[in-house]
Amino acid sequence: MDDRCEPVRETLSAWLDGEDGVISQAVATRHLEVCADCRRYEVAVAGAQRRLRLRPALVVPDLTEPIVVADAARRQRELRARAARGLVSLVGLAQLVLAVPLLIGLVEPELHLARHLGALELGLGVGLLVAALQPRRAAGVLPIAAVVATVSVVSAALEIQRGHTTLLAESVHLLEVAAVLGLWLLVRAVRAGGRRPAWPAAAAPT
Length: 206
Hints:
The chain has 8 helices and no strands. By secondary structure, the chain is mostly helical.
């Protein structure tokens, strides 16, 4: 290959890429008429470019169904999460309402005990409201609410069995049970929302 071939071949490559060559078309054409090597080079690079442009397309799976299913699942998670947050919020507000008369001494038993009970009700109510506003904190509040609900329900059942109280009087503890249920649903919704759907992998070209 002499020195005249190099600018011609650079120009041919540039034309195939849609760019301007380093020499004019007339100069390149005259050189191709007398240089068999450069004519073969022109045919070779044109064929290589054609093969690259016309290579088989990648086999892409149809993602319509998994996308639709994932979107429906996401909507269901959002609905469950909103319902759980609403339930937790209502129970939290109810706990705050129950705490006030205990804290200011409007409800007997003994005042000191009532204030401790009121503080517990207040703390639980605040924790529930925080979990409703920030659902990722629900997992931290759930064990506390579960202990309170378990102790309250067991104690109430024993008191009813001994005849010291009535089922109606102890029905207030259903709030603690509702709190546990709402927190559990909220924790599940948060965890489900953190998982990503698995998309089918694209098939490799053959």
